[in-house]
Design a protein that fits this description.
Layout (H helix, E strand, L loop, with lengths): L5 H7 L10 H11 L7 E8 L11 E5 L10 E4 L2 H9 L4 E3 L1 H8 L7 E4 L4 H4 L3 H6 L17 H11 E5 L5 E8 L4 H17 L10 E8 L5 E2 L2 H5 L5
Helix pairs in contact: 2-8
Length: 237
Amino acid sequence: MTQRSKSYQEAAKAVDRQKGYNPEEALALVKETARAKFDETVELHLRMGLDPRNSAQQVRGVALLPHGLGKTIRVLVFAQGEAAKIAETAGADYVGTDDLSKKIEDGWLEFDTAIATPDMMGKVGKLGKILGRRGLMPNPKAGTVVPAEDLPRVINDARKGRVEFKLDRTAIIHVPVGKASFELEQLKENAYSVIDAVIKAKPAAAKGQYIKSAFVTTTMGPGIKLEIKDVMAISVS
């Protein structure tokens, strides 16, 4: 059994493990129990009533966080010719083709999101094993494979706090929603944007209860259970 730190044990005393908190209460408690010496990331974890082996029950999408993630996002764009010029003008940190592919194959991964134009996917596809494991692979469903004219918008969204979500092999969705130092209202608006996006992405083939359980936590803190009826009632216009 893992030995928890004294700080964790003290923080855990503030959480009622049997209770389902409304989201605002839970996020306030998350801030209270964030006791690490660094600014912890606040995470949302959703256990879904979906079968990850069923292709018709996959969930993948994008949510825009109104208050960002609390860090500078480094954007890489696979593009050439005029598209590369557009990406550079839009403020991408790294733009290229074969040169970037070679660096990545050699182990370089100093970026937070990768975007590509459709004509680049033949080259980018070869990096699937490297980028896919880290959630960095450009994907049309996630909105990271776009024509040149859409690059400024997508790059800008990434900088502001664009997060991807998808169902993992254990039927859970894990998404960061900000930092413990954020104001409560900022965390609430970010978390609500993610939950709303996940609810709207419900596949037609989903059966039974869509979201089975939901928790918020920080990097080093205890999990705090959310009341599911309150989660499912969230809607962002």
